[in-house]
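ok trying again, last paste got cut off:
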Amino acid sequence: MPLNMIRKTAIVNALREAFPDNVGAMYTEEEAPAVPKEAKATEEIIQKEIEENANQEVISFSNQGAQKRNAPRKEAEPVAVDPEPSEKEEIQEALFDELNPPVDANPGF
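nice, full thing came through this time. structure:
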């Protein structure tokens, strides 16, 4: 179907020229420049390294969480509590009582 291929190629070239930012760098497998085998091998090696590093970071992160979960916890130390209210608490209670007088339950209207 040579006529269809010529038409397709003409349309694709027109689109690439009309919209270079959107489709200027898009190519089909047949149109793409040939990539040497060495470059493909290098890309595969880089991709493997990226995956391994990402996996190591995930494992490291999960191990840190496990160490924190398994770490012994410190016991809380008892704090001495003064049984008598402090002067500050007495002043606060007095102010509260002064500002909030008792409400008569039966106002007797």
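cool. The two ends are 102 Å apart (CA to CA). The mean pLDDT is 76.
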